[in-house]
Specification:
By secondary structure, this protein is an alpha+beta fold. Among the domains are: 2-149, Beta Polymerase, domain 2, CATH 3.30.460.10; 418-466, no CATH class. The protein is built from 25 helices and 15 strands. The protein has helices at 2-5, 8-19, 29-35, 51-62, 114-119, 146-152, 161-167, 170-182, 188-197, 206-217, 223-232, 235-238, 240-243, 259-273, 277-285, 290-293, 307-322, 328-339, 342-348, 353-363, 367-376, 383-407, 418-425, 431-445, 453-466, and strands spanning 24-27, 43-47, 66-71, 76-83, 86-94, 96-100, 107-111, 129-131, 140-141, 154-155, 185-186, 250-251, 254-255, 295-297, 301-303. Strands 3-4-5-2-1-8-9 form a seven-stranded mixed β-sheet. A two-stranded antiparallel ribbon has the order 6-7. A two-stranded parallel ribbon has the order 10-11. A hairpin with a 2-residue loop joins β12 and β13 (254-255). α19 (342-348) packs across α22 (383-407). The protein starts with a helix and ends in a 7-residue tail after the last helix. The chain binds cytidine-5'-triphosphate. Cytidine-5'-triphosphate is lined by residues 28-29, 42, 44, 121-122, 126, 168, 170-171, 174.
Length: 473
């Protein structure tokens, strides 16, 4: 631990605090991450009295390269420093006592002791403080045995969890997020309090919840977080559509799989092979329309017709409510949800060149990730079935490569453009032009003509003649 505190910046902060005769500590996530050997960028420093004064004095001492921002409303200040290779950011705050009223996140804040400041923190592992004053340099102040909890791998609140969560309900999400990221367990008392306070999550903004969900989904084994969200009762407040995936129904002795746990297996499978956050969201939502499309048919058993198309249609609404971005990432998730059945259907039936070409055309550059999602989607416990699917997928992959090499449809650019057609026949923009364009595209995708200019032009002329379109002279 002391190795980190040998950095000149910590010595300097300690010196400035000594000169002002102020007790001063590094606190919170930074200390936790030192102990856990995790990378951490944000350094938080707490002092008794004004954090702003300490920051100002430090800035003066550093001179050039230091930049001070003061947030008087919050009683905090930030110092950014950059000189040569050295660059860091430190937040300064005065130790405080906080109390919250029931219907607002806005606390009543007063000056306090270090212990007051540690009391108001979310978890024991986040309440560790290291002294920076020279007479106690590097000494750990750990009133709640946060070090023991790190060793035991436990997330626990310093005070009565009902108070900690009621003060700031986002902490319920943070508990689950830390448990997921660090692979820690949530202490039973703490977890029971989440169950009791779950409804309070409603007063937290969707943006802050989305931030935590992002951290959960980017973790190594994201399913842990979603299982905890479910077990705590938070999930229906956060994404009712996901909660609706839970459970299995049986009619005439025929059950269907629990789509919630299936989805989480797919998510973990994808997470093992890709760090792409949006591919992970696609995995989470790939079967989102199954509850809505579920039917039982005496002949066919359980069906979920069109769940991929309906699922894709549900994505914008879900993203809007959850304050996920409504941009190209959303479009990507939509596209993958819509296409996630295609390679499976291909692998089940005969793999024709034209079906492979159409898949390449529709998936474009996302084809590799789509294939990854589809392979991850095979969660059957029947080893024979899994082997058969994976073999077929290997065949689909080979075909995809072969056809792409030959026909280059992955980034399809029409070899004959609408402008040229209009010019040649002296046509205005019209339905006929659109029809000719799609006739060319379909002929290429169906393998009737090669993806080449000359063949496409001739084909276009033939089609135009059949449609009675003539060149004006
Ligand atoms: N904290 C808290 N309650 C919150 C948010 C933060 O008590 N709702 C305290 C914790 O002591 C935390 C510190 O403020 O360690 C810094 O918070 P933040 O930077 O949000 O999180 P970190 O713990 O540093 O973790 P991460 O960087 O992974 O978000």
């Amino acid at each position: 631990m002391h190795k980190h505190l040998e950095q000149p910046i910590f010595k300097l902060i300690g010196q400035v605090a000594d000169e002002l005769q102020r007790p001063c500590f590094v606190i919170g996530g930074y200390v936790r991450d030192i102990v856990l050997c995790r990378q951490s960028k944000d350094i938080d420093v707490v002092t008794l009295g004004s954090g702003i004064e300490l920051a100002e004095a430090l800035c003066k001492k550093l001179g050039r390269g230091a930049h001070l921002s003061v947030f008087r409303n919050f009683g905090t200040a930030q110092v950014k420093y950059r000189k040569g290779h050295e660059s860091w950011e430190v937040e300064f705050v005065g130790a405080r006592r906080e109390s919250y009223s029931r219907n607002s996140r806005k606390p009543i804040v007063e000056d306090g002791t270090l212990q007051d400041d540690q009391n108001r923190r979310d978890f024991t592992i986040n309440a560790l403080a290291l002294c920076l004053n020279s007479d106690h340099y590097g000494e750990l102040v750990d009133p709640f045995d946060g070090m023991g909890d790190i060793e035991r791998e436990i997330i626990r609140t310093p005070l009565d969890p009902d108070i900690t969560f009621s003060d700031d309900p986002l902490r319920m999400m943070r508990a689950i997020r830390f448990a997921t990221q660090l692979n820690f367990r949530i202490y039973p008392d703490t977890f029971d309090a989440i169950k009791r306070n779950k409804e309070r999550i409603k007063i937290i903004s969707r943006e802050r919840i989305a931030d935590e969900l992002g951290k959960i989904i980017r973790a190594d084994i994201p399913s842990r977080g979603f299982i905890l969200l479910d077990e705590s009762g938070l999930l229906p407040f956060i994404c009712p559509e996901l909660a609706a995936l839970k459970g299995s129904e049986t009619i005439d002795g025929h059950g269907h799989k629990d789509n919630f746990y299936h989805t989480l297996t797919v998510l973990d499978n994808v997470a093992l092979r890709s760090r792409n956050e949006w591919l992970r969201w696609a995995a989470l939502f790939h079967d989102i329309a199954k509850p809505r499309t579920k039917r039982y048919d005496a002949r066919l058993g359980w069906t979920f017709h069109n769940h991929n198309f309906i699922g894709a249609k549900m994505i914008p609404g879900i993203f809007r409510t959850m304050k996920l971005p409504l941009n190209e990432h959303m479009k990507y998730v939509q596209k993958l949800v819509e296409l996630h059945m295609r390679p499976i259907v291909l692998a089940e039936e005969e793999v024709t060149d034209s079906a492979v070409r159409r898949l390449l055309f529709d998936a474009g550059n996302d084809i590799d990730e789509l294939m990854l999602l589809c392979e991850a989607d095979i969660t059957s416990r029947n080893a024979e079935k899994v082997r058969r699917y994976l073999d077929n997928f290997a065949l689909v992959r080979r075909k995809l490569e072969e056809i792409e090499e030959k026909d280059r449809v992955r980034n399809f650019q029409p070899p004959v453009g609408g402008e040229e057609i209009m010019e040649y026949f002296a046509l205005p923009p019209s339905r006929e032009v659109g029809e000719l364009k799609s006739a060319i595209k379909n002929a290429i995708l169906d393998g009737i003509i090669p993806n080449e200019r000359e063949a496409a032009w001739q084909y276009m002329l033939d089609q135009a003649a059949q449609m009675g379109i003539e060149k004006k002279v």
